[in-house]
Structure formats: structure tokens, C-alpha cells
Fold this protein.
Amino acid sequence: MGAADVIAVDTGPLVAALRGARSVFALSGSGISAESGLPTFRGVGGLWRTHRVEELASPEGFARDPRLVWTWYNERASAHRRAEPNAGHYALARLEEAIGDFTLATQNVDSLHRRAGSRNVLELHGDLREARCTQCGARRALDATGLPLTEIEHACGGRLRPNIVWFGEPLPAAVWREAEAAAARADAILVVGTSAVVYPAAALATRYNDRAFVAEINPEETAISVRVDCALRARAAELLPRILDKLQR
Ligand code: BV8
């Protein structure tokens, strides 16, 4: 996508909605980290196209072969630490400073929003900064290479697993309640870089608030494009900084 395409994208309505908003809720997905070099899930070359994800990102897969699952997550943890936040992440951190009541809920586990300076970040699907024991719940920080495969078995008899929410698992209750409340009270909702197919996270975009102005930033059509007020077909790292520049003029 060239710059010309972005200029054709009309950010006026979104900037006006943000300017008049007391409360803003943002939902991000792997697309906002694409320009940091991290693969998305469902796109070309995405993680769910190149791996047997059912065997890797599920409680059953972990029970069957914990070393294989950790090998995959260790590769991702290393990639996350090599990656840098991009202009899209930094723009959302600027937006948090500009809006009094701002909440960012992310489906990403790469910690790039926090590294870009976002403070109120709800990690709906967990994170890859630490492991958690399946038995006693003990937490163990992951270093740049993840968890040594020789340390999966925990002293209590349980196993250390990634602190990730897998399919069929509930999202962290307190995190979910805070995200739901923030989406419900928002005057403007910004959905960035998600295909909006995974629930209940995707519901935050359009199911908890029928008065907010909802905009999505995504080069592609998504499962919620028909339900948003404004679909901006552009890349996050290109368009978000322009939106903040216009907002702060
Ligand atoms: C649960 C962990 C219940 C693995 C992930 C209805 C209600 C509730 C649940 C369900 C439901 N229907 C179905 C379910 C079950 C399931 C679900 O949603 N299935 C879907 C697939 C149909 N949901 C669950 O199982 C959830 N749990 O509901 O539990 C429960 C309740 C109580 C008690 C017991 C059980 C758990 C969901 C979490 C699953 N874990 N990941 C891992 O990460 O290793 S999901 C996975 O998908 C990732 O977390 C990812 O974050 C998430 C969403 O993907 P996206 O981020 O959107 O990525 P994707 O590639 O799809 O899209 C990228 C987008 O970016 C694209 O649109 C692309 O165009 C765009 N893009 C690309 N470049 C750019 C860009 N955009 C902007 N700029 C760019 N430059």
C-alpha cells in the first residue's frame, strides 16, 4: 500500500469523534505488530497457516507434548524481544496521554504496547513474559530465550506452561471485566489490526456499546467491517501517527 492510498483515507470523522470523546476504548490485534516484523495469525505466512496450531496452542497439545509447545513459544518469545514497537504502538501511547479516560485491550502477547509506553493495557490473551505452574500457580519470569526445556516440570509435581489463554480457556476474569466496562462507557472505539474472529475479545468492538463511534484501522475487510461507523483501509503504523498529528494540531 503506497502513501497515496493512505491520503485517500478520510480520517476526518474519526479525528472529530476522538476530539469530542471523554472516554476512548481501543482493541488491538496482531496486525498492529506486523510492521514490527511479527507474523499475524491468519494472514499469508501467518502463525496459524505455518504451524499445527491446534497441537501447539491448546491445553490438549500441551498435555501431549509440552516440549514441542515450549519450543514454539520460546521461538515466539525470542522474536518478541528482538522486535521493536512501531509508530502504531507509539501513536496509541500518545492517544492515551491525550484522552483522560483511555483503555487499550490487546489480544497480543508480545508486550510491544507496554514497551511503547502504553500504561493502561489489558492483555486479554495473556503474555509471554512469564510461565505459570499448572498445579500450584507459581509464576516464573521468562528470559529472552523463553523457558529451558529441562525446567518444564515444577517441584510441586505440576508443569510450567505459557501464561497464554488458549482456545477453550476463559480470559482472565478481572481483565475481562475491566475491558467490558471500558468498552461500554466509551464515546469512541478504535479497532486496530484484528480480523475480529476470536471471541469474546472481538465482541468488545461492537457488542457492548450502541452509541460509541466505532472505527477500524485495517488494510483488509474484517468480520466487523459491516458494523463499524468508519473502516479505514490503511496500515496502523502509517495512519495512527497521522491521526494523532491531526488530533493534536
Ligand atoms: C473462551 C493464544 C470460554 C494462542 C489465542 C463465542 C463466545 C465465546 C467463545 C467463542 C465463541 N465462539 C467461538 C468461541 C471459542 C473461541 C473462538 O473465538 N474461536 C474462534 C476462532 C471461532 N474462543 C475461545 O476459545 C476463547 N475462550 O471463549 O472460553 C470459556 C468460558 C468460561 C470457562 C471456560 C471456557 C479464548 C480465545 C483466545 C484464544 N487464544 N491465542 C497464541 O497466541 O499462541 S487466539 C489468537 O487469535 C491470538 O491470541 C490473536 O490475538 C487472536 C486474534 O487474532 P488477530 O490478532 O486478529 O490476528 P489475525 O491474524 O486473525 O488478524 C490480523 C489482522 O491484522 C488482519 O485483519 C490483517 O488484515 C490485519 N493487519 C495486517 N497488517 C496490518 C493489519 N492491520 C493494521 N495494520 C497493519 N500493518
About this structure: The CA atoms of residues 15 and 82 lie 33 Å apart. The chain has a mean pLDDT of 94. The chain has two domains: 1-38+85-125+171-249, 39-82+133-164. Strands lie at 23-28, 101-106, 121-123, 126-133, 139-141, 160-164, 188-192, 213-217, 230-232.
